[in-house]
User: Which sequence fits this backbone?
């Protein structure tokens, strides 16, 4: 007679994914590793990792927070370098060679970037150099031809331009 063996809840092999593995992946991401590298260094395939994230959606915000923290740290030095380059191009400038008609270098000239200077000033003195909103008021004006002539006559007199007097329609004196 065969022996009865109880069936397991799940058929197949057990998963490598665990909360401890997830925490190690997060630690690697916070330390600056790309997400894919952090996952694969823990010995798990990325598709398996993300499949488990779909089953446990409460872990997704933790992963996103770790990625944002990593990106903030990673981009801080890049932003500082970009600001230094902005200052260098706008304020310090750079030299370019000058060539004569024969194509021989005869000197150098200093060049500056106006756009870099503007961005540098906007970033460091926004109270003075920020873009200020403008308001455009649309009005509708109906000017009749008679009113147009009066306006033009008034402006000509203000500007000192004189019009030729209108020809008078007088009758010649009677002899």
Assistant:
């Amino acid at each position: 007679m065969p022996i009865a063996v109880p069936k397991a809840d799940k058929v197949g092999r057990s998963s490598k994914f665990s909360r401890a593995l997830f925490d190690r992946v997060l630690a690697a991401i916070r330390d600056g590793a790309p997400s894919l590298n952090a996952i694969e260094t823990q010995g798990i395939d990325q598709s398996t990792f993300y499949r488990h994230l779909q089953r446990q959606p409460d872990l997704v915000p933790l992963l996103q927070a770790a990625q944002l923290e990593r990106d903030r740290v990673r981009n801080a030095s890049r932003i500082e370098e970009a600001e230094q380059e902005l200052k260098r191009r706008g304020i310090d400038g750079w030299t370019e060679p000058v060539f004569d008609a024969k194509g021989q270098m005869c000197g150098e000239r200093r060049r500056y970037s106006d756009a870099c200077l503007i961005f540098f000033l906007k970033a460091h003195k926004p109270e003075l150099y920020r873009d200020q909103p403008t308001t455009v008021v649309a009005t509708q004006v109906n000017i009749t031809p008679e009113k147009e002539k009066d306006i033009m006559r008034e402006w000509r007199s203000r500007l000192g331009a004189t019009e030729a007097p209108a020809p008078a329609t007088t009758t010649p004196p009677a002899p």
